[in-house]
Amino acid sequence: MILLTGGKGQLGSEFQKLFKKLGVEYIAPGHREMDITDINAVKNFLDGKNIDFVINCAAYNDVDRAEMEPENCFAVNCLAPENLALESKKIGAVFVTYSSDFVFDGEKKKPYTESDIVNPMSVYSKSKAEGEKRVFTACDKIFVIRTSWVFGTGNNNFVKNVINWSQQRGKIELVEDQVSSPTYAKDLAEYSWKLINSDKYGLYHLSNTGTASKYEEGKYILEKIGWKGELLKVKTSKFNLPAKRPRYSKLSNQKAEKITGKKMPQWKNSIDRFFEEIKEGDL
């Protein structure tokens, strides 16, 4: 039996689809059923249940709002994973949680590996980096999976924002100085599951292959939908955002690829498949 937290989010909803397709038994309690920031609530929920895997997809992902809500951000991204990891160890379950490319400062010129030193620059990224440390201390049968720029049919994301902007504006400005890899939640769930079943515990990077700036990603989306407006390249500094972002945060998948024997799809291919899902009415 799998315990899935954050089941209504982008990644959690894709895990639910995957498990239903594979016939894997799981439960996905909502916040009212189990408050993961309260260790007693986690203990009480797990009591009497035969759980083999705990997969934590819950996250505080509003990078700018986190600057104003550090306590909430740390509660969800740091305390909650630690609670789940501690209880997973007690019941002998494998624990899986997700982190972010934002734990890096973006000064590197080639893809980040798991051995690179983190240097978080915002409340959000610091909460993710601290969460990584705490869960590795709390549990030994563990997978921490860093990913980047996740999009999917659940919740809000950059791809959906660009589509919405195209319907409201004749001119769109997108930044050219943030570079990473867009990652499709469906691919992330599928490849995570391959990795999780390897029993090769540890820290891994998983994102779609290839690199893109936000401008390049947006340009590809707008071309697909035939938008005829004006698209402009701008610098991140123009928007005066509360939280700092890494300029370059592409993740290397090599470690995970050696375990799974497969490469993640290219990001453009993933956006293409996302649009097929939209056509089927899942947006």
Automatic annotation (TrEMBL):
GO terms for biological process: dTDP-rhamnose biosynthetic process. Pfam families: RmlD_sub_bind. Keywords: NADP, Oxidoreductase, Plasmid. Pathway: Carbohydrate biosynthesis; dTDP-L-rhamnose biosynthesis. InterPro entries: dTDP_dehydrorham_reduct, NAD(P)-bd_dom_sf, RmlD-like-bd. The keyword Cell cycle does not apply. Belongs to the dTDP-4-dehydrorhamnose reductase family. This is dTDP-4-dehydrorhamnose reductase.
